[in-house]
UniProtKB/TrEMBL annotation:
<dbReference type="GO" id="GO:0006423">
    <property type="term" value="P:cysteinyl-tRNA aminoacylation"/>
</dbReference>
<keyword id="KW-0479">Metal-binding</keyword>
<keyword id="KW-0030">Aminoacyl-tRNA synthetase</keyword>
<keyword id="KW-0862">Zinc</keyword>
<keyword id="KW-0067">ATP-binding</keyword>
<dbReference type="GO" id="GO:0005524">
    <property type="term" value="F:ATP binding"/>
</dbReference>
<dbReference type="GO" id="GO:0005829">
    <property type="term" value="C:cytosol"/>
</dbReference>
<feature type="domain" description="Cysteinyl-tRNA synthetase class Ia DALR">
    <location>
        <begin position="351"/>
        <end position="411"/>
    </location>
</feature>
<feature type="binding site">
    <location>
        <position position="238"/>
    </location>
    <ligand>
        <name>Zn(2+)</name>
    </ligand>
</feature>
<keyword id="KW-0547">Nucleotide-binding</keyword>
<dbReference type="InterPro" id="IPR015273">
    <property type="entry name" value="Cys-tRNA-synt_Ia_DALR"/>
</dbReference>
<dbReference type="InterPro" id="IPR056411">
    <property type="entry name" value="CysS_C"/>
</dbReference>
<dbReference type="Pfam" id="PF23493">
    <property type="entry name" value="CysS_C"/>
</dbReference>
<feature type="binding site">
    <location>
        <position position="269"/>
    </location>
    <ligand>
        <name>ATP</name>
    </ligand>
</feature>
<dbReference type="GO" id="GO:0008270">
    <property type="term" value="F:zinc ion binding"/>
</dbReference>
<dbReference type="Pfam" id="PF09190">
    <property type="entry name" value="DALR_2"/>
</dbReference>
<keyword id="KW-0436">Ligase</keyword>
Length: 474
């Protein structure tokens, strides 16, 4: 099976050929840890988690590194606002970041380096750039000479003569050229600082990723991923400083996920439409958030609204509903223990993997899972065939981080939380069902109906089947 990814560097889909057969090395830019993670971080985290899951399922040994930027102007400013050290703030937000990522089913990276723990590697790279005259020191600062790198702009497609200093391209009169960017920043009074050949200071943003990726993945590695907002200047600058240091290609494949809009507007704190992961998982089941994200191909922009997420629950419930029928009838463990497969199902498995191999086409992969769901509903009475389809749904779902909880538990958990949803705990519901059972045994139909209505008012749906009563939250 040929795997193809859209490579931002060439602006086309390309066959994926790793540097070392059977092994893939991936780096993604992590967060600057000064605040809570938002939906944009979740989207990137989910998409590249799926990338790793897919490659591993395809037989590759994957090494995945994702860094923390734990020193930055924003971190310094926020730490001063809160009256704490930058280290304390960074450690607090790293812990929160890890909890947020885990809450939506994102596996931790194999390597999670911090910028402040790689100062020697950063200094070594800067010294090399100075020695090769790609960088220069001024008043304790070090800047990269952008115009010395003839291929500058090859990732973003920007013409160097048309670039205007702005965004995170810093304006500084000490620069030889306005486009030159900082590799090392001289420290100001009261700021965190590290010793260097140019005096006390701290690293620039871009050099951190170049130094850390080199240490853990090598001078050239397979895949660098991140948000499309990082193409310029961050990833462009990573290429420049890395390729000038090592005189070889930095990364073979660049993958960038699209941005998240909120109600058709760019997500922004200033607009008051900033959706944190912590807030989202209070409102929506984490798997529902994941399903919503994967319903769009990773390179495309996605528009978030509560209605759009709520509309996703019908699709997830449909798949879980088919799984639940099987679980209640035959048992989850029985199906998962079955060996082998089925020719018709193998065809669906093949098409699923083909969709994933086509630049992670998760919408098409989900469509195939819906086809399998339809088949499972049709063959529920055929124990052997139903068990095979059930098992395949679980296995393919795992590649997307979906369908990993028992279906009965899925329906007992609120998928969308509304006020009053927690009025009845699971224990309360079980007690009411027991009371209804006693009332029915005593032929106290009024009491039995009263309990049913009480459950219905709390959005609890019950079903009597084979002498037992099953319940689920609507």
């Amino acid at each position: 099976m040929m795997i193809k990814f859209y490579n931002t560097l060439t602006n086309q889909k390309e066959e994926f050929k790793p540097i070392e057969a059977g092994k893939v090395k991936i780096y993604t830019c992590g967060v600057t840890v000064y605040d809570r993670c938002h939906l944009g971080h979740a989207r990137g985290g989910i998409n590249f988690d799926v990338l790793c899951r897919f490659l591993r399922a395809s037989g590759y040994e994957v090494t995945y590194a994702k860094n923390y930027t734990d020193i930055d102007d924003k971190i310094i400013d926020r730490a001063n606002e809160r009256g704490m050290s930058t280290k304390e703030l960074a450690e607090e937000n790293i812990r929160i970041h890890d909890e947020d990522m885990a809450s939506v089913g994102i596996n931790p990276p194999d390597i999670a380096p911090k910028a402040t723990e790689h100062i020697p590697e950063i200094i070594e790279m800067i010294e090399s750039l100075i020695a090769k005259e790609f960088a220069y020191a001024v008043d304790g600062n070090v800047f990269f000479r952008v115009r010395r790198f003839d291929e500058y702009g090859k990732l973003s497609g920007k013409n160097i003569d048309d670039l205007i200093s702005g965004s995170r391209v810093e304006v500084d009169k000490r620069k030889e050229d306005a486009l030159d960017f900082a590799l090392w920043k001289a420290s100001k009074a009261g700021e965190p600082a590290w010793e260097s050949p140019w005096g006390e200071g701290r690293p620039g943003w871009h050099i951190e990723c170049s130094a850390m990726s080199k240490k853990y993945l090598g001078e050239t590695f397979d895949i660098h991923a991140g948000g499309s907002d990082l193409v310029f200047p961050h990833h462009e600058n990573e290429i420049a400083q890395s390729e000038c240091t090592h005189a070889k290609p930095y990364v073979n494949y660049w993958l960038h996920n699209g941005m998240v809009n909120i109600e058709h507007q760019k997500m922004s704190k200033s607009l008051g439409n900033f959706a944190t992961i912590a807030d989202l998982v209070k409102k929506f089941h984490p798997e529902l958030i994941r399903f919503f994200v994967l319903s769009s191909q990773y390179r495309q922009p996605v528009d978030f609204s509560e209605k759009s997420v709520e509309s996703s629950v019908e699709g997830l419930d449909r798949i879980y509903g088919a799984l639940e029928k099987f679980e209640l009838k035959y048992g989850r463990e029985k199906a998962l223990a079955l060996p082998g497969g089925h020719s018709q199902i193998a065809n669906h498995q093949h098409h699923f993997m083909e969709a994933m191999a086509d630049d992670l086409n998760t919408p098409q992969a989900l469509a195939i899972l819906f086809e399998l769901t339809k088949m499972l509903n049709l063959v529920q009475e055929d124990e052997e065939r139903a068990a095979v389809i059930y098992k395949v749904l679980i296995e393919l779902g795992e590649m997307l981080g979906l369908f990993q909880v028992p279906a009965v538990d899925w329906f007992k958990t609120p998928r969308i939380r509304h006020e009053g949803d927690d009025a009845l705990s699971d224990a309360d519901i079980d007690a009411l069902i027991a009371a209804r059972k006693e009332a029915r045994a005593a032929k106290d139909w009024a009491r039995a109906d009263e309990v049913r209505d009480q459950l219905a008012d709390a959005s609890i749906q019950i079903e009597d089947r084979d002498g037992q009563t099953y319940w689920k939250r609507k």
